């Protein structure tokens, strides 16, 4: 089971592990969840997902997005068991270019996304790699499609459609 929670849940993590939780999503930096400390203290027992600050993804400063992604990767990726994601979800009001940059900005990082199976084994899966595997021309079309959306709700729906396309292409 992967647990999504907002807020600072660091004190609850030992009990979560004991209860059978194998992953945590959120790792909310707004609530002072320290990814480096969580990785150090619980990285052997939990898959860690998230920690990209959504406040950065709501703005248009793509350099800030890249810096946030670099920080999260530096703190969480060493040794595996970390998946880059926002601390929340894709939502109305998020800057679509920033959401795409979160993925595009890490092409230089060696990825080995993994999925835990019911038998406890780990298998390779797509996700971010699936998006990056799309032809550059298709990624450009998708970015244009996102940028042409006038309403935040439309952008959020289009981001979700892209996620769905990438996941279906990975299967």
How is this structure best described in words?
The protein has 171 residues and is an alpha/beta fold. It has 8 helices and 6 strands, in the order E-H-E-H-E-H-H-E-H-E-E-H-H-H. It has a 4-stranded parallel sheet with strand order 1-2-3-4, with helices on one face. The longest helix is centred in the C-terminal third of the chain and has 19 residues, at 152-170. The two termini are 22 Å apart. The model is unreliable at 108-129 (pLDDT under 50).
**Biggest pleated-sheet summary:** 4 strands, parallel
Query: How does the overall form come out from the CA principal axes?
Result: elongated
Structural class: alpha/beta
Reading the helices and strands in chain order gives EHEHEHHEHEEHHH
DSSP helix fraction: 40-55%
Beta-strand content = 5-15%
Total tally of structural domains: 1
- Cα-based radius of gyration, to the nearest Å: 16 Å
Order of the strands making up the biggest sheet: 1-2-3-4
The count of β-strands is 6
Number of helical segments with 4 or more residues: 8
End-to-end distance: 22 Å
**Mean of residue pLDDT?**
77
**Unreliable segments of 5+ consecutive residues:** 108-129
Highlighted features:
171 residues; alpha/beta; four-stranded parallel beta sheet; two-stranded antiparallel sheet; 8 helices; elongated
Task: Detail the topology: elements first, then pairings.
Blueprint: E1 2-4, H1 13-18, E2 23-26, H2 35-42, E3 47-50, H3 54-57, H4 62-76, E4 82-83, H5 96-104, E5 114-116, E6 122-124, H6 128-133, H7 136-147, H8 152-170
Parallel strand pairs: 1-2, 2-3, 3-4
Antiparallel strand pairs: 5-6
């Amino acid at each position: 089971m992967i647990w999504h929670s907002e807020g600072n849940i660091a004190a609850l993590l030992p009990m979560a592990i004991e209860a059978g939780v194998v992953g945590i999503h959120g790792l909310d930096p707004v609530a002072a969840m320290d990814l480096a400390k969580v990785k150090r203290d619980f990285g052997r027992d939990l898959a860690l997902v998230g920690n990209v600050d959504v406040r950065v993804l709501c703005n248009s400063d793509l350099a800030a997005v890249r810096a946030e992604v670099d920080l999260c990767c530096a703190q969480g990726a060493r040794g595996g068991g970390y998946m880059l994601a926002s601390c929340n979800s894709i939502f109305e009001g998020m800057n679509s270019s920033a959401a795409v940059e979160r993925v595009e900005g890490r092409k230089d990082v060696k990825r080995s996304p993994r999925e835990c199976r019911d038998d406890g084994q780990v298998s390779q899966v797509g996700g971010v790699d699936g998006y990056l595997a799309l032809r550059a021309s298709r990624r450009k079309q998708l970015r244009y499609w996102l940028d042409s959306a006038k309403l935040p709700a439309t952008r959020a729906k289009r981001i979700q459609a892209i996620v769905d396309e990438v996941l279906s292409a990975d299967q």
